[in-house]
């Protein structure tokens, strides 16, 4: 009866391996209802193989080896991206860029704040009041025309007061304007600074978007590297379990004299080789989990983000299929040409330089400021009104001043203007080149994505054909027309093809993330 039991074990194993490698996606080793249950990890370590003096050994899986299973919860890519967007420190740092730019706008608006002022001077010597001068008032800048509305109250007394500072006993009220006639009428340093600060907000938002997109690109690559390592581990684990089970079956046949010792040796070598590959895949899987954990943070409101580890009980999602067909390349190129963060940044930088050039050009004009003030005596005490309006606000009571300045050679102004013009030209050329590079990057990323789609289709067909070959080889082995070496070779090739297929799927998802990044977007907000 022993020979029948041995053949039954081998036949059941071969049927199980044929069924397994006929699947598109590997089933878990410990899935219920399997024909052969998983072999305990210490079975082979308890077995001593006696052969023809050439082989004696055991295959012992490491105790801390990761186990792949479909029963674990799935951590989807979208959930991962949302976690990065909400909690990653670099994303939070990016949101501060816009706030920092807003503070620059606030500082620039400070140049238009109304100002209260006072000026007091007094000289008393030898019991004689030489003079006592006091001026207080309010200056209000007006944004549209670069004007300054001024209101002053002067009260001056003293024995030796300069006649031009003589004012009525009740003081003198001044109300008027300071108007730039030429230089500074259309644009001045205050308006130039404010408008450039407002453009800086757009540049900061573009930089913020680019930083977020780059972070999500790196996160996407880390996620799909984890996916590839996980799928590779699953397939190698399946292959190792097959080799381990085959070794036990061949060993039993050898013990009853129904199989040659060399077959036992070959089965052992195959199990040992696949165990080494499995151990390497396990290390790679752990490392990709660590890399993925660098993007996982926990934060609440304004609290400092705290790093968290990827739970050991989660697995990646399956790779989506045929995503390239859902993307219109022309729409993507047009979108990149209009909304790419780098183009937005360069466009706003060019606008800043255009404003600066306009301001520097205005400095070539003569500086002529006109100050006109209406004058009135101060209010009389109660009961002292004389009914005379001669000293009140009227056109005859005024003060006018003109301030004129004009450098003869204008070398500083002309040099700075030429410098800004050259910077503006450089930025324009840089923007043209950046636009071309972005279009080419999008096209290149699209070509890679489309090529990967075709490669995946071909790889799927190759894998299906290899599955047919494995099943045929198993059937020939059952009939005694094949060897264990050929069965192992067919299985190893199938495992390699399955791993290659998952690698292509991982590359496809990373290529998709690169495509969206090249277009100025990201995989989460596309």
TrEMBL record:
The keyword Transport applies. This is TolC family protein. Belongs to the outer membrane factor (OMF) (TC 1.B.17) family. Transmembrane segments: none annotated. Pfam families: OEP. InterPro entries: OMP_efflux, TolC-like. Residues 1-22 form the signal peptide. It comes from the Bacteria. One of its GO terms (cellular component) is cell outer membrane. Its main location: membrane. It is found in: Cell outer membrane. It comes from Spirosoma terrae. Keywords: Cell outer membrane, Membrane, Signal, Transmembrane, Transmembrane beta strand, Transport. One of its GO terms (molecular function) is porin activity.
């Amino acid at each position: 009866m022993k020979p029948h039991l041995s053949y039954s074990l081998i036949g059941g194993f071969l049927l199980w391996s044929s069924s397994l490698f006929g699947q598109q996606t590997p089933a878990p080793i410990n899935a219920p209802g399997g024909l052969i249950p998983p072999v305990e990890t210490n079975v082979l370590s308890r077995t001593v193989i006696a052969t023809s003096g050439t082989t004696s050994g055991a295959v012992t899986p490491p105790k801390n080896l990761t186990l792949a299973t479909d029963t674990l919860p799935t951590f989807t890519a979208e959930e991962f991206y949302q976690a990065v967007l909400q909690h990653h420190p670099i994303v939070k740092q990016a949101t501060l860029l816009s706030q920092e730019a807003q503070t620059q706008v606030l500082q620039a608006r400070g140049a238009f704040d109304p100002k209260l002022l006072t000026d007091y001077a007094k000289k008393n010597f030898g019991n004689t009041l030489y003079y006592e001068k006091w001026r207080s008032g309010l200056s209000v800048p007006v944004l549209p025309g670069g004007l300054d509305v001024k209101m002053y109250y002067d009260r001056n007394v003293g024995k030796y007061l300069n006649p031009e500072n003589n004012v009525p006993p009740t003081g003198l009220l001044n109300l008027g304007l300071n108007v730039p006639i030429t230089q500074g009428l259309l644009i001045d340093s205050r308006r130039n600074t404010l408008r450039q600060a407002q453009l800086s907000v757009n540049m900061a938002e573009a930089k913020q978007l680019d930083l977020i997109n780059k972070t999500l690109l790196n996160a996407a690559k880390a996620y799909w590297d984890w996916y590839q390592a996980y799928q590779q581990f699953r397939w190698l684990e399946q292959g190792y379990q097959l080799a381990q089970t085959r070794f036990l079956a061949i060993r039993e046949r050898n013990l009853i004299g129904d199989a040659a010792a060399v077959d036992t040796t070959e089965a052992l070598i195959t199990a040992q080789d696949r165990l080494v590959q499995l151990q390497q895949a396990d290390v790679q899987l752990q490392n990709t989990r660590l890399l993925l954990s660098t993007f996982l943070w926990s934060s609440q409101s304004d609290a400092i983000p705290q790093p968290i580890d990827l739970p050991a009980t989660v697995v990646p999602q399956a790779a989506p299929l045929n995503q390239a067909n859902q993307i219109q390349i022309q729409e993507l190129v047009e979108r990149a040409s209009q909304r790419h963060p780098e183009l937005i940044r360069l466009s706003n930088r060019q606008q800043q330089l255009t404003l600066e050039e306009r301001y520097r050009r205005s400095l070539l004009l003569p500086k002529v400021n006109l100050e006109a003030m209406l004058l009135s005596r101060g209010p009389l005490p109660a009961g002292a009104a004389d009914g005379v309006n001669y000293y009140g606000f009227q056109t005859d009571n005024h003060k006018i001043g003109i301030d004129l300045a004009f450098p003869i050679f204008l070398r500083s102004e002309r040099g700075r203007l030429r410098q800004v013009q050259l910077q503006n030209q450089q930025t324009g050329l840089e923007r043209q080149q950046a636009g071309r590079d972005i279009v080419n990057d999008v096209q290149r990323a699209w070509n890679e994505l489309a090529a990967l789609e075709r490669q995946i289709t071909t790889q799927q067909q190759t894998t299906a054909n290899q599955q047919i070959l494995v099943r045929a080889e198993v059937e020939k082995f059952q009939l005694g027309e094949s060897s264990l070496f050929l069965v192992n070779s067919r299985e190893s090739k199938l495992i390699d093809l399955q791993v290659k297929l998952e690698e292509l799927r991982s590359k496809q998802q990373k290529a998709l993330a690169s495509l969206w990044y090249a277009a100025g977007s990201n995989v989460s907000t596309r």
